[in-house]
């Protein structure tokens, strides 16, 4: 119960600090959801005296009439030692040790809000009292209920006429909340039926499920009367017993009677008064304080059950509100940076998003770009067709233009000037459609700009920036339109300025072929001749239009569309770089209401996260969730599976005890086996649960290890136990046995089983008894035999078992990934530094000048770029599935006091990256945003591409960074509310930033590429060329000459040496890069073995007349064929996993094809030769020869 009260206390204090007072607002409130205790009663009912008796100090104002005019939130904090003091929420750093000053400050703060009138205010006063004489408790003292207004009717001098309803509404607003516990104070010297506290409590809690009755002024009742019926619940029954108190009288207060003497007199009154002496044990203010703080178990429900029942709903509310707040904050966008560099970067990032959306419209990812093609494909041809060339080339117009073109000297042979003028005047009309195309594309681009602006969510946040971007984009489009129009009209003018001569040179040939040469030159002014001229000009103009129909779109795309994609905002960026901080602030003029909303949401989110952490850290909040049923069919299936396999040792890895544990325990009981659970629980949790360590003697460790039959080489790591008492299997009380033992290098083992078994009496540390229906367990100390030198112990976290478990999982995962075809496409396996960062990382992380790409550890790869002013831009990448990935900077290579950058992806799929400072090894000592890394104004960035996560950040050091210890770590569990989970594996490497190498990898990527190329060349030459060439010579040249036959031996020996060299380079390559390709490596080792056997077989060859020679030949030939086959296969596998490129594939494909064709040709020749030899040895029979033999 202490934990629950302390939890509520801390949550209410967090609400106070972060401005959540439960008032009406647009923000979600946590205050209203917290369990609280409100003190209600009528004026002069003794509320103040009750509170002061609980605290043990005079700290409340006193007087006639209404004194409490504002709610007082009183938080009591018990301290072990020291001087007691008080603090106000509105004066957080001022400590009051004189409680008379506390009384004055309460009165003064009340007057500040309400004035010196008798008016009331709903704004609470927050007061915290720290004392060794109080209990951890939070109470809300509400104004006393009244029936009439007092003082003058003027609001400035007295109470308003509505004061009665105002106070009643204020009190009701507090106690009507289902999480509020009502402390109803009623005076015993008045009829209970007229009690204001009981009346209003009954309205909001008719069943009395959350109402505690306190009866005051019992000593002031009329003689002959008593309050026994009330205190025993007969006059008015509540779910909880009434508590009577005797307060100090006004005379006692005036005489300054202290609380100790007052409580002694109160105890004497109840014990010595005959009517109350049988109730004396549960009467008095001292008992009231205990009831409110710890609440001893009653036969009925008590305060602990009330508060405890609210915790699950409170957790659900907090989790849902956190999601809602994060969603709204994400929708509102990031806050504006404070410095000019940050503002500039922010503007450029927003513009980059807009530019990306605009390009997506043009490229077809988003709709709109197809309209430009429609202009080229439909609008331009239709406009050209609408040009009325027929009217322009009418007979009279042709005659007129030719005549005018001749001037005073008519043409001699052909009217060339007339032709030119006709063509030029016709082609000039094409300028209209050309300009129309430019204008149409310009309109589409403007439309796409406005559409992209509307689709850029970040621009909606900043109206001025939105306007500036729109204006700059339109201005750029205008400039591009003018340039495009100029270039397009130049195309038309070029056609006008120079005509295609070949077209007209064909005309005399046409006349000679099909014309009528008898016509006189003077007849060419007749209509037929003019029509021929018009037809010729029309043909030429149509041919030119067809050419321009293809050229105009090219010009428009080049000058408008292409430039819009490349440099739409270049001019805007140039102007932006000239602006100062104030000018940039004007561009980022976010709506003040949105800024205020973001700040409020951030503070409220901080409150809810703090509340979530508080509840998570409260031991009682965890236990109910551990044993809640989840997927019972899965539990039954696993249990049945384990029992069906007759499992003797069952191991469970889990984050908490669940129905799976019970199901597996049932299976173990059925099979007579044993269950070992891997549970990440802390020692504090075990001690709070009262669980015991059964084994406390040395011989018991060996006996338990033998009983569990644990293999020392394949032990499981278990971190402690968690299981509540209750009826176990077989009718025995279930209990938990736990111990630590140096299995391997230091582990803890937990066994869950029945009550019977080993260690029943020897340990003496466990006892089970039943008293009043409760299970009691004796605590015993935990025995740890973990060596401090072992890395499992060095982690000092709740997840020590994850160290070995993660290693096992990563090893199995690497095997599985490799078996599926060569590993990941990430940096550690394939492609390495060739990944294009511009597709998913922002500037400057996407463009690293003079980039150094250095493998670090496992799949970790670090890209970095250094500038002259000691600025380093880093991009760390590694394989990612879940959890977090981190890189730390340490002075001495140790984790303690290091600063690190950690990145992960949250449940909404959003990347997160934060800086942490590791001050200790518990989550509370690893604070976000507390590191010492000199980050620049460029915000860190995290992205996931495929199966690889990229952490990007920029640092600026005062001196040149040389050799630096780097910590690399990961966890499969993501941070919990930005609190890091314990890492599952880590390492320390020393990186020389000046040379770009680590202690264990000096060559870097260049060395890797060189070794990879050498390895491939040697393998292709050895396994892929010399060995097949030798085999071909051995098979097909053996009959030519023995010299040629035996020549295959040195050739194949050369191939063997080259293959061995390839294997050696491959081993060196593996040791540098720490990558593992089991198929490629396994085939290579197999090839090495069988080629060595072939070489040894050569030296052990039997003589030709030996009877074993035939078997040796068979073995030597078939092993050689197997070697050739697997050599070709392994070369293809190596080319594939190394991503060697088309050159290697084509080159080896050509070599392999050449060898196959050679083998096929030689095999065919060999078959023909063998057929010819067979014919010579066995000549065919003929009918003539048979007849000749018969005649003879």
Automatic annotation (TrEMBL):
<dbReference type="InterPro" id="IPR045266">
    <property type="entry name" value="DOH_DOMON"/>
</dbReference>
<feature type="transmembrane region" description="Helical">
    <location>
        <begin position="1016"/>
        <end position="1037"/>
    </location>
</feature>
<dbReference type="InterPro" id="IPR006593">
    <property type="entry name" value="Cyt_b561/ferric_Rdtase_TM"/>
</dbReference>
<dbReference type="InterPro" id="IPR020850">
    <property type="entry name" value="GED_dom"/>
</dbReference>
<dbReference type="InterPro" id="IPR005018">
    <property type="entry name" value="DOMON_domain"/>
</dbReference>
<dbReference type="InterPro" id="IPR030381">
    <property type="entry name" value="G_DYNAMIN_dom"/>
</dbReference>
<keyword id="KW-0249">Electron transport</keyword>
<feature type="domain" description="GED">
    <location>
        <begin position="530"/>
        <end position="623"/>
    </location>
</feature>
<feature type="coiled-coil region">
    <location>
        <begin position="467"/>
        <end position="497"/>
    </location>
</feature>
<keyword id="KW-0378">Hydrolase</keyword>
<feature type="transmembrane region" description="Helical">
    <location>
        <begin position="1119"/>
        <end position="1138"/>
    </location>
</feature>
<dbReference type="Pfam" id="PF03351">
    <property type="entry name" value="DOMON"/>
</dbReference>
<dbReference type="InterPro" id="IPR001401">
    <property type="entry name" value="Dynamin_GTPase"/>
</dbReference>
<dbReference type="InterPro" id="IPR022812">
    <property type="entry name" value="Dynamin"/>
</dbReference>
<dbReference type="GO" id="GO:0016020">
    <property type="term" value="C:membrane"/>
</dbReference>
<comment type="similarity">
    <text>Belongs to the TRAFAC class dynamin-like GTPase superfamily. Dynamin/Fzo/YdjA family.</text>
</comment>
<keyword id="KW-0547">Nucleotide-binding</keyword>
<dbReference type="Pfam" id="PF01031">
    <property type="entry name" value="Dynamin_M"/>
</dbReference>
<feature type="transmembrane region" description="Helical">
    <location>
        <begin position="1150"/>
        <end position="1168"/>
    </location>
</feature>
<dbReference type="InterPro" id="IPR009902">
    <property type="entry name" value="DUF1442"/>
</dbReference>
<dbReference type="InterPro" id="IPR003130">
    <property type="entry name" value="GED"/>
</dbReference>
<keyword id="KW-0206">Cytoskeleton</keyword>
<keyword id="KW-0963">Cytoplasm</keyword>
<keyword id="KW-0493">Microtubule</keyword>
<feature type="transmembrane region" description="Helical">
    <location>
        <begin position="1049"/>
        <end position="1070"/>
    </location>
</feature>
<keyword id="KW-0472">Membrane</keyword>
<keyword id="KW-0342">GTP-binding</keyword>
<feature type="domain" description="Cytochrome b561">
    <location>
        <begin position="974"/>
        <end position="1171"/>
    </location>
</feature>
<dbReference type="InterPro" id="IPR045063">
    <property type="entry name" value="Dynamin_N"/>
</dbReference>
<keyword id="KW-0813">Transport</keyword>
<feature type="domain" description="DOMON">
    <location>
        <begin position="858"/>
        <end position="973"/>
    </location>
</feature>
<keyword id="KW-0505">Motor protein</keyword>
<dbReference type="GO" id="GO:0009524">
    <property type="term" value="C:phragmoplast"/>
</dbReference>
<keyword id="KW-0175">Coiled coil</keyword>
<dbReference type="Pfam" id="PF07279">
    <property type="entry name" value="DUF1442"/>
</dbReference>
<dbReference type="GO" id="GO:0005874">
    <property type="term" value="C:microtubule"/>
</dbReference>
<dbReference type="InterPro" id="IPR027417">
    <property type="entry name" value="P-loop_NTPase"/>
</dbReference>
<dbReference type="InterPro" id="IPR019762">
    <property type="entry name" value="Dynamin_GTPase_CS"/>
</dbReference>
<protein>
    <recommendedName>
        <fullName>Dynamin GTPase</fullName>
    </recommendedName>
</protein>
<dbReference type="GO" id="GO:0008017">
    <property type="term" value="F:microtubule binding"/>
</dbReference>
<dbReference type="Pfam" id="PF00350">
    <property type="entry name" value="Dynamin_N"/>
</dbReference>
<dbReference type="Pfam" id="PF02212">
    <property type="entry name" value="GED"/>
</dbReference>
């Amino acid at each position: 119960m202490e934990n629950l009260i302390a939890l509520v206390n801390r949550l209410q204090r967090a609400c106070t600090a972060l401005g959540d007072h439960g008032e009406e607002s647009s923000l979600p409130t946590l205050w209203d959801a917290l369990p609280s205790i409100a003190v209600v009663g009528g004026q002069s009912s003794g509320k103040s005296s009750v509170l002061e008796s609980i605290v043990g100090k005079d700290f409340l104002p006193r007087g006639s009439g209404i004194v409490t005019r504002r709610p007082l939130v009183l938080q009591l904090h018990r301290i072990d030692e020291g001087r007691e003091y008080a603090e106000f929420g509105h004066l957080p750093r001022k400590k009051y040790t004189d409680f008379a000053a506390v009384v004055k400050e309460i009165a003064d703060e009340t007057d500040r809000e309400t004035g010196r009138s008798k008016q009331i205010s709903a704004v609470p006063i927050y007061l915290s009292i720290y004392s060794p004489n109080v209990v951890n408790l939070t109470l809300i003292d509400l104004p006393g209920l009244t029936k009439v207004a007092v003082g003058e009717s003027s609001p400035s001098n007295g109470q308003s006429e509505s004061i009665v309803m105002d106070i009643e509404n204020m009190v009701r607003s507090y106690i009507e909340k289902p999480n509020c516990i009502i402390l109803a104070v009623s005076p015993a010297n008045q009829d209970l039926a007229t009690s204001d506290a009981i009346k209003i409590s009954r309205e909001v809690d008719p069943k009395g499920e959350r109402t505690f009755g306190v009866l005051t002024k019992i000593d002031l009742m009329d003689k002959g009367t008593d309050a026994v019926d009330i205190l025993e619940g007969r006059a008015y029954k509540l779910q909880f017993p009434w508590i009577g108190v005797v307060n100090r009288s006004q005379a006692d207060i005036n005489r300054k009677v202290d609380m100790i003497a007052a409580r002694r007199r109160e105890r004497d009154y109840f014990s010595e008064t005959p009517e109350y002496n049988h109730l004396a044990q549960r009467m008095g203010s001292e008992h009231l304080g205990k009831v409110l703080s710890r609440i001893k178990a009653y036969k009925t429900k008590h305060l602990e059950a009330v508060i405890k029942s609210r915790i699950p709903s409170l957790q659900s509310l907090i989790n849902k509100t956190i999601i809602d707040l994060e969603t709204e904050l994400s929708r509102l966008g990031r806050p504006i940076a404070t410095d000019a560099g940050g503002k500039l970067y922010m503007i450029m990032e927003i513009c980059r998003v807009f530019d990306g959306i605009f390009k997506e419209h043009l490229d077809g990812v988003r709709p709109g770009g197809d309209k430009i093609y429609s202009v080229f494909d439909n609008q331009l041809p239709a406009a050209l067709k609408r040009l009325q060339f027929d009217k322009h080339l009418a007979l009279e117009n042709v005659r007129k233009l030719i005549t005018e073109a001749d001037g005073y000297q008519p043409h001699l042979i052909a009217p060339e000037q007339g032709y030119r003028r006709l063509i030029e005047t016709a082609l000039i009309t094409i300028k209209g459609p050309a300009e129309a195309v430019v204008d149409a594309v310009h309109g589409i681009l403007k439309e796409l700009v406005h559409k992209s602006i509307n689709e850029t969510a970040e621009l909606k946040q900043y109206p001025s920036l939105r306007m500036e971007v729109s204006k700059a984009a339109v201005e750029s489009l205008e400039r591009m339109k003018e340039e495009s129009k100029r270039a397009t009209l130049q195309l038309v003018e070029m056609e006008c300025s120079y005509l295609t001569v070949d077209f007209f040179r064909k005309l005399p040939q046409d006349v000679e072929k099909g014309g009528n040469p008898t016509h006189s030159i003077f007849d060419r002014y007749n209509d037929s001749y003019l029509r021929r001229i018009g037809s010729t000009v029309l043909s030429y103009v149509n041919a030119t239009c067809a050419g321009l129909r293809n050229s105009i779109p090219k010009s428009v795309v080049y000058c408008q569309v292409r430039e819009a994609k490349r440099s739409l905002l270049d001019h805007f960026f140039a102007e932006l770089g000239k602006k100062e901080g104030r000018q940039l602030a004007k561009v980022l003029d976010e709506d003040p209401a949105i800024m205020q909303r973001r700040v409020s949401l951030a503070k409220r989110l901080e409150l809810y996260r703090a509340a979530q952490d508080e509840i998570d850290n409260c031991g009682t909040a965890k236990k109910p969730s551990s044993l809640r049923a989840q997927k019972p069919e899965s539990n039954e299936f696993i249990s049945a599976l384990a029992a069906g396999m007759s499992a003797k040792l069952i191991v469970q890895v889990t984050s908490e005890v669940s129905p799976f544990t019970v199901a597996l325990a049932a299976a173990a009981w059925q099979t007579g086996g044993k269950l070992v659970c891997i549970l990440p629980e802390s020692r504090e949790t075990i001690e709070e649960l009262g669980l015991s360590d059964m084994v406390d003697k040395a011989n018991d460790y060996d006996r338990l290890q033998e009983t569990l039959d644990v293999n020392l080489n394949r032990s499981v790591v278990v971190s402690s136990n968690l299981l509540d008492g209750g009826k176990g299997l077989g009718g025995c009380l279930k209990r938990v046995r736990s111990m630590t033992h140096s299995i391997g290098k230091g582990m803890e083992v937990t066994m869950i089983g029945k009550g019977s078994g080993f260690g029943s009496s020897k340990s003496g540390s466990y006892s089970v008894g039943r008293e009043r229906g409760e299970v009691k367990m004796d605590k015993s100390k935990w025995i740890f035999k973990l060596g401090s030198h072992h890395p499992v112990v060095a982690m000092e976290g709740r997840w020590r078992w994850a160290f070995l478990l993660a290693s096992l999982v990563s090893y199995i995962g690497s095997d599985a990934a490799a078996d599926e075809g060569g590993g990941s496409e990430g940096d550690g396996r394939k492609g390495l530094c060739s990944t294009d960062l511009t597709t998913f990382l922002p500037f400057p992380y996407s463009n690293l000048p003079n980039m150094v790409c250095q493998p670090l550890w496992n799949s970790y790869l670090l890209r970095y770029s250094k500038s002259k002013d000691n600025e380093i831009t880093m991009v760390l990448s590694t394989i990612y599935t879940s959890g977090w990935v981190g890189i730390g900077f340490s002075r001495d290579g140790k984790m303690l006091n290091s600063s690190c950058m950690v990145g992960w992806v949250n449940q909404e799929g959003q990347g997160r990256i934060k800086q942490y400072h590791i001050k200790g090894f518990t989550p509370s000592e690893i604070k976000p945003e507390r590191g010492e890394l000199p980050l620049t104004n460029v915000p860190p960035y995290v992205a996931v591409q495929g199966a690889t996560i990229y952490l990007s950040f920029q640092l600026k050091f005062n001196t040149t960074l040389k050799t630096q210890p780097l910590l690399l770590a990961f966890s499969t569990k993501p941070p919990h509310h930005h609190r890091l989970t314990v890492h599952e594996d880590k390492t320390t490497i020393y990186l020389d930033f000046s040379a770009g190498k680590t202690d264990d990898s000096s060559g870097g990527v260049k060395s890797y590429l060189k070794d990879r190329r050498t390895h491939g060349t040697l393998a292709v030459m050895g396994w892929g060329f010399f060995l097949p060439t030798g085999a071909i010579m051995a098979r097909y040249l053996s009959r030519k000459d023995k010299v040629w036959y035996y020549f295959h031996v040195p050739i194949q020996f050369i191939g063997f040496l080259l293959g061995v060299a390839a294997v050696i380079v491959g081993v060196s390559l593996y040791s540098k890069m720490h990558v593992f390709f089991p198929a490629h490596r396994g085939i290579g080792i197999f090839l090495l073995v069988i080629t060595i056997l072939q070489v040894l077989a050569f030296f052990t060859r039997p003589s030709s007349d030996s009877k074993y020679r035939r078997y040796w030949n068979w073995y030597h030939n078939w092993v050689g064929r197997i070697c050739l086959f697997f050599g070709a296969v392994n070369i293809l596998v190596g080319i594939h996993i190394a991503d060697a490129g088309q050159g290697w594939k084509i080159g080896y494909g050509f070599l392999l094809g050449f060898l196959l064709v050679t083998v096929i040709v030689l095999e065919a020749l060999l078959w023909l030769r063998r057929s010819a030899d067979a014919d010579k040895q066995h000549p065919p029979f003929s009918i003539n020869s048979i007849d000749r033999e018969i005649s003879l």
